Amino acid sequence: MVFRWDHMNEEERQKRIGDPTAAIRTPVMAGGLFAISKAYFEKIGFYDPEMNVWGGENIEISLRVWLCGGTLEIVPCSRVGHVFRKQHPYSFPGGSGNVFARNTVRAVEVWLDDYREYYYQSVPSSRFVQAGNLTARFQLKKRLECKTFQWFLENVYPRLKVPNPPGLASGEIRHGLYCLDAKSQSNGGAVELITCHGNKGAQDWVLSKENRIRNNDFCLTVPKPVPGEPVVLNHCKPEATEQQFELSHHKKLIKMQQYDLCLDSSEGNQQLVVNRCDFNVLSQHFKFSRIY
Question: What local confidence, expressed as pLDDT, does residue 207 receive?
């Protein structure tokens, strides 16, 4: 998520016909060049203290202002001086790209609600970014009684066109207290069931519109469509029937599209297999975090 300048919409242009110096409502600000009362800045929680150096903080505070009862405006006749140094007098831990990615993910996780998936689809590498502890930010969001990102889209930035859902389902694939994990990230690598950690990465999946269950560039694959066959990871391939799945039986079973075989943990270990589909077998019940 980055700031960019855009043209005013027709509503804002009409408001300014009688007064071209009138303030302009803006969804976000560029950052660094803004005025805010000290009392209000304190009330809404200052900047996120867990963000590092700079980058992304302007998006975060812009969303927070709108969602938590404030407004953000551009004052056309204001004048602000901004002197750029030839080089930064400070360093970025791990590099500026890593700092910006972490800061942005913190904003995405707190303020975008379920729309965060669109960001991760656009920037897949962000799924593996560790955002740090967000408990205090969610507590602030609750205390300020902030609105949803859906409200922001409807009332603040209706011109922002949301793309179609990124797939048929996404997020963790939960099986009780355990989640499907793709930590091997290699062709033929095992797909394991391990304790859900909530940090996305190897436990963040998408059931695509092409009916592939993918994590990054790898897809769930059943090399041989026979009961008891282990499920592995392979690079996603177009039209590969061994990689095509669908949600079945009240969306609790994950079934191979071409065969009557479903994901199953019945082997009693962390290795995932396929077996004949049977809704009454609880070892075949899995649940995506989000179904579209």
Answer: 92
